């Protein structure tokens, strides 16, 4: 009975372009003078009976001058039909490619990219092992260069193993568009250099428009900001069919049954861009589909919080299949790190929600050809307002023999803040089968709760409610409120590895962007009017019929909301 946070088979048309999936072949490399090579085998397009592929070979060893021979074995019935940038031959499953003469010399670090069109039926597995002049290409974890000899990266190098924590030792991409809006606000320059999430919230966001850059535009700018050093780019993948099933403010462009479009027009084009070797040195963090899977746990029949649209999305399986597809596609790209949205403590922190959520996430991560290994971690509190740490009470306190859990505010929740929730969720996910290395992110963009209303000590020990209400820094009317919350401030600034199990504090929701309009605003973005964004609204079962606590005069979700930005500056905690 609890609240929300904020919170097919694709038609295999002949010639349909699938994502390019780069497969790094990586093992140790030997000393400098020894031979060595790295291969990325990329399927550039695929249709039911055929495919095209590019095989990018980097010579990591001594210069090769007398020509080269590359070979591999197909695991299925693939047959090379026509090749380029090399002379192709095939006997049985074994393919041999010799240089084309003009590209027979390969200096140390030099790259050559033979490609071919082939036929196949059934699955089209990528070959696992390649040899160059008889040496198995094991890749390298030492700094390598891909396209330009001047771009050197530290570990993990392009094609190297994923970093355990991608934020460790890395800068994070500052979105120049958000930064400009922040700078234009009085006092905003103080935070304009903070990294924020790039929301790919519709198909058109991939290409961009005349006024906002597309994904390549962001990644090119990210390369510039990286200047050869490790840099994380944070992308929000947010366009599932039937999006935002328990609310209206962020309903999206794809209808409940449009999973094929989600795959072909949204995920595949993004994956193609992310797999471009040009971007191999960036660490791309993908935040996967805010609110979707949690909604399938809490906002479905027979819960009193069920919505018809969430029942539809549970029944048709398109959230689960869509998330699995995104994880599989992005997880195959060596420098992409998937983090699944895990709601927040005021949503999944109850016993009957936590375990089922971790189990559902595992189910999704094993769907659509994905495996649990495609999940690098989870993110808590995205675009929400839950306090990071409640300093003046813990869930273990009691007043006059009454546990804090019996208070109206906590209402039997197992957690009272996002840090304790995130750390516990991580353990739950590992119990559900996820790798022990998974890490958590916490969105601290708007959970600061500073300013004059912030308590300076515990509440009175008269009743448990007085104790909790007097001491809690989260000043929302109800924990289930999520839209443009009055009184909120900026939270902890983005930071790598701040606490055990936490990969980073991040600002995924860009401060100043609305959660939803406070009244009906006609639009072409598919966004509805959710009364939780109307300050006059008296609530629904998901916030136990409390006032919404929303700021007035808010624009559509994602649009700039100056008054909110100003309030976030004013109530920042830590203060600016
Ligand atoms: C909106 C998106 C927007 C994002 C970030 C979401 O609530 O639906 O359109 O990009 O917030 O502000």
From TrEMBL:
SUPFAM superfamilies: Carbohydrate-binding domain, Glycosyl hydrolases family 6, cellulases. Residues 106-164 are annotated as: Disordered. Residues 134-156 have a biased composition (Low complexity). One of its GO terms (molecular function) is hydrolase activity, hydrolyzing O-glycosyl compounds. InterPro entries: Beta_cellobiohydrolase, Beta_cellobiohydrolase_sf, CBD2, CBM2/CBM3_carb-bd_dom_sf, CBM2_carb-bd_dom_sf, Glyco_hydro_6_CS. The keyword Disulfide bond applies. Its EC number is 3.2.1.-. The keyword Signal applies. It is an enzyme of class 3 (hydrolase). Residues 108-124 have a biased composition (Polar residues). Substrate binds at residues 199, 201, 344, 347, 384, 482, 509, 513. Residues 1-33 form the signal peptide. Keywords: Carbohydrate metabolism, Cellulose degradation, Disulfide bond, Glycosidase, Hydrolase, Polysaccharide degradation, Signal. It comes from the Bacteria. One of its GO terms (biological process) is cellulose catabolic process. The active site is at 244, 291 (proton donor), 515 (proton acceptor). Residues 30-140 form the CBM2 domain. Coiled coil: none annotated. Belongs to the glycosyl hydrolase family 6. This is Glucanase.
